[in-house]
Amino acid sequence: STQQTTPRGFQTNEYADAQLQEIVRKMRERATVYKEKLKDPVLSSPEGSPTSSPSKKKLPPPPKDEKKEEKKEEAEAKPEEDHYCDMLCCKFRKPPVKKYMTYLQLPDSIDSYTDRRYVAWLMLVTVAYNWNCWFIPLRFVFPYQTSSNTIYWLAIDIICDICYLCDLLVFQPRVQFLKGGDIIVNKVEMKKFYHSSMKFRLDVISVLPFEVLYFFFGFNPAFRVNRMLKHNTFFEFNDRLEAILDKAYIYRVIRTTGYLLFILHINACLYYWASDYEGLGSTRWVYDGQGNMYLRCYYWAVRTLITIGGLPEPQTLFEIVFQLLNFFLGVFVFSSLIGQMRDVIGAATAGQNYYRSCMDNTVSYMNTYSIPKVVQNRVRTWYEYTWDSQGMLDESELLEQMPTKMQLAIAIDVNFAIVNKVDLFKASTFTGECSSVGCDTQMIYDMLLRLKSIVYLPGDFVCKKGEIGREMYIIKQGEVQVLGGPDGTKVLVTLRAGAVFGEISLLAAGGGNRRTANVVAHGFANLFILDKKTLNEILVHYPDSEKLLMKKAKVLLKEKGKPAPGPPVQQPRGLAGLFGQKQETPKLFKAMLGGKGKAGLARLLQLKRERDIQVMPQKIEQILSRAKERNEKNKSKEKTSKQKSCRKENEAEAEKPEQEEKKPLEPAASSAPPAQKEEPNADTKPKPPAVMHRGTTNESLIISMSPSPTAGEGEILKVEAKEKKRK
Predict the structure, then answer these.
(1) Which residue, of 257, 282, 330, 589, has the fewest CB within 10 Å?
(2) Which intervals of the chain are annotated as region Disordered (predicted)?
């Protein structure tokens, strides 16, 4: 076969090659990580690496836990499958009764501010209260309750009484209350607090069974008037409902309108009672008994309370007094209701009025200083979009009224998910480490309170190319485009809600880095901004987080500085993959070659000659200056040595007093000649070097250094110029 005929040689296995290359890659990554740790000590984790023995011991338990969890899930899933009922050839899922019971089970204590079930119960009691308030006067005055329908009225009354009793015995004794700033949840304490309140006394009076008098005086609804004393529950329901509604002013308007209708209802009942007292149809002022009695009386009550006029004149004294009281009451009630309605509507439109006043003041200011119409239109657009998008001009004004803890809670719910997307503030993991290191959570919370929201109009520059980056931007809503290209109009990338840019500039050293591209708002864009000054003020209190952020900034800068990955390069097979790929030829060297083969090499040599010719005069000047320095040093050394020898000879001559006076002069005379030789050298100043003209020439320079024939004169510099021989 072919495998037997093939000569023995080096054979490779693709699987083994892939494994070896993967091992080499991991070892290189590990080596780079340890190099970075040696360079920057902050990268090393302060936590010790976990030992291997406990991890091996803990490996077996997870399957057991998983089995237990699977059994629990199966047990929970089984009852859900069984709760089905067949009806008309269809299956309907019926939730188990236990879930209803657990949901409907009353807690030991009720929080009246947050428990929605308590609000629902108050609504039921309020419906019963309104039934009594509206129909007790109606049944007492108008002949609507007869012997044929009494049973229905009694059934509804009993249902309302049951609601009153349940509220008295079950719900109200479980309501929590505050005592000295503490929330009391003890059953005994809650019962004592409720029983000692005025609300309990009124509730007890409202459920007293005066209906027993029915057996003596007949079915008269007047014996149920005490049911109207449960007004505290009605007002409590209004407060709790307004607290949970998004647009509470709508309910306030409806409630105020209900007050007006109820007062008109009471007035209509009083008018029918007065007409019945005077006699139906006895005078022109009373009700004549024709048509729908309730609607006719209600119409008269509306015209009287609103003081429209056009009513028949009262005839008797009773009618005159009744009409006067009705007019006075109508003026008072109508004016108070109108004022209350004005307050409700004014509170509902307070923000809109503030927005209009701010916009009007800004427009008048721009008109005073003759601002161009283009700028005025952009300002109006900003006002309109800001108000439509967030319902207010500045969100910080609303949050400033709250305590810091509440501001932080709102900021976490609104902004934490957005800030958590920033790579700079995420937990970072490194190869070879088992633990992840993240920023201090409290530092991130402090940063959330400092974020500023700014709205950019379509076409506004968020940042421009070349300017110093001092802010980080987080897109809350809208889109921005990164522009580049030769003319700066090419759209490189479009960033949408949740994207972050400019985070590296917060920690860049040297006053910030420059922007590399223009960022323009594409449509309306709402951005969060965190500037560098604010971050530095926060990091003063968190030094560990500052070190960690600096480290992360370095890593992100390295990652962003890497070139974009090109097409995959086929890796060499065999052992050649262990040594890595050959580095690419530098671009500068390629540009200098300018071609291939002899032409490129000739061009390189020509450039080298021209460079040498230009640099040669500078080299000659440097050599001459160095030679002069050496000569001066040698002369100074010889001078000092001669002075020392002269001093020694003078000392020796002074010790011989027998010798003549001329002998001491000999060393001075002998020392004079070298002094005379040195004087002209000291007096003469070095001439400035001649100006050497640069250019191309056919001569070559030969520079040499040789010792001087006379002792003590140092070395001699020779410069010779020889003309090149032409071939």
Answers:
(1) 589
(2) 35-76, 624-727
Are 450 and 534 in contact by the 8 Å Cβ rule? The answer is yes
Supply 531's token pair.
């500037």
Alpha-carbon distance of 505 to 503, in angstroms, equals 5
**Strands 490-495 vs 461-463: parallel, antiparallel or unpaired:** unpaired
Cα three-residue angle 267-272-274, rounded to 5 degrees: 90
The DSSP bridge pattern shows strands 518-531 and 461-463 to be antiparallel
Residue 588 token pair: 């500068």
Maximum mean pLDDT: which of 73-77, 120-124, 243-247, 585-589: 120-124
Calpha distance 316→308 (Å, rounded): 22
621-648 per-position pLDDT tens digit:
777 788 788 878 887 877 787 777 777 7
C-alpha span between 59 and 538 (Å, rounded): 43
- The amino acid sitting at 129 is Y
* Closest to 330 measured CA to CA, from 294, 301, 295: 301
- Between the alpha carbon of residue 146 and those of residues 142, 212, 613, the distances in Å are 10, 19, 130
Q: Which of 274-278, 457-461, 639-643 has the lowest mean pLDDT?
A: 639-643
Give the 3-state secondary structure of residue 521: strand
Over range 128-135, report the average pLDDT: 94
Residues 6+ apart with CB under 8 A from 19: none
421 DSSP 8-state letter: T
If you ran DSSP here, which 8-state letter would residue 572 be given?
Answer: P
Of 565, 559, 564, the closest CA to residue 424 belongs to 559
What secondary structure does DSSP assign to 648-699, as a single string? HHHHHHHT-TTS-TTTTHHHHHHHHHHHHHHHHHHHSPPPPPPPPPP---SE
C-alpha atoms less than 13 angstroms from C-alpha of 169 in its C-beta half-sphere: 7
User: Quick check: 154 pLDDT over 50?
Assistant: yes
Q: Are the beta carbons of 344 and 256 closer than 8 angstroms?
A: yes
Sign of CA dihedral 46, 47, 49, 51: positive
- Look at residue 527 and give its three-state secondary structure: strand
Least-confidence region, from 225-239, 511-525, 602-616: 602-616
Answer whether 549's CB lies under 8 Å from 424's CB.
yes
User: Residue 6 contacts by C-beta under 8 Å, 6 or more apart in sequence?
Assistant: none
| Cα atoms in the 13 Å half-sphere on the side-chain side of 119 | 12
Distances (CA, A) of 265 to 189, 321, 330, 548: 42, 20, 13, 73
* Interacting residues of 229 by C-beta distance below 8 A, sequence separation 6+: 202, 205, 206
Tens-place pLDDT, residues 541-579: 888 888 887 777 777 667 665 444 444 455 555 555 555
| Residue 678 buriedness (CB in 10 A; 0-12 / 13-18 / 19+) | middle
Amino acid at 313: E
pLDDT in tens, 331-355: 888 788 888 888 888 887 887 888 8
Domains of the chain: 116-339 (no CATH), 401-560 (2.60.120.10)
Kindly list the distances between the CA atom of residue 133 and the CA atoms of 103, 167, 461, in Å, as whole numbers in the listed order. 32, 18, 64
Q: Which of 518, 372, 537, 377 has the alpha carbon at shortest distance from 446?
A: 537
How long, in residues, is the chain? 727
The pLDDT value given to residue 46 = 42
Instruction: Give Dmax (Cα) for the chain.
Output: 177
Asked if 139 and 145 count as a contact pair (C-beta separation under 8 A), the reply is: yes
Helix axis angle for 116-141 and 150-166, nearest 10°, is 150
Closest residue by Cα to residue 259 from 305, 292, 293: 305
- Note the pTM of the prediction, 2 decimals: 0.55
Closest CA to 714 of 641, 634, 658, 657: 634
- Residue keyed to tokens 């897109």: 475
Percent of the chain with pLDDT over 70: 68
Q: Which amino acid is at 171?
A: F
> Under DSSP, is residue 720 helix (H, G, I), strand (E, B) or coil?
strand
